[in-house]
Amino acid sequence: MAYEKNRRRPPVEDDGTLIEGRNAVLETLRAGRAVDKVFVAEGAHIGDVAAEVRRHRVPVVTCDRRKLDGMSPTGNHQGVIAQAAAQEYVSLDDIFRVAEERSQ
């Protein structure tokens, strides 16, 4: 994303692990993507997102809206940003099972 003169701040590096906005976070959770934590602005009304976060037992960090503004690659976080896992976590049993299947 090129820096535009009307932006208030330079663009934030995005490695694809930050998901911002109510619907995007909600759909990420519903799709089963691993989420490490969800950042919520103090006083934000996130209704369905909060219920889904509790259902998936994802840790919630309540913070000032300015922190979310600083984290947000686009500035359109709507009071919620999810930090998705960079890699899907697997158990040792899964690793051993795959190794055994490959005769390793």
Description:
This protein is α+β, with helices and mostly antiparallel strands and 104 residues long. 34% of the residues lie in helices and 18% in strands. The protein has helices at 22-30, 47-55, 65-71, 92-101, and strands spanning 18-20, 35-41, 60-63, 80-84. A four-stranded mixed beta sheet has the order 1-4-2-3. Helix 1 (22-30) packs parallel to helix 2. The longest helix is centred in the last third of the chain and has 10 residues, at 92-101. The radius of gyration is 17 Å and the shape is elongated. Mean pLDDT is 83; it is low at 1-6.
Main traits of this protein?
104 residues; elongated; single chain; disordered N terminus
pLDDT averaged over residues: 83
Taking Cα atoms only, what radius of gyration do you get, to the nearest Å? 17 Å
In DSSP terms, counting alpha (H) and pi (I) runs of 4 or more, how many helices? 4
Uncertain regions spanning at least 5 consecutive residues: 1-6
* SSE-based structural type: alpha+beta
> How many DSSP-defined strands?
4
- Residue share in β-strands: 15-25%
Order of helices and strands: EHEHEHEH
Q: In one word, what is the shape?
A: elongated
Q: Which percent range fits the helix content?
A: 25-40%
Termini Cα gap: 44 Å
Give the strand line-up of the largest sheet.
1-4-2-3
Largest sheet: 4 strands, mixed
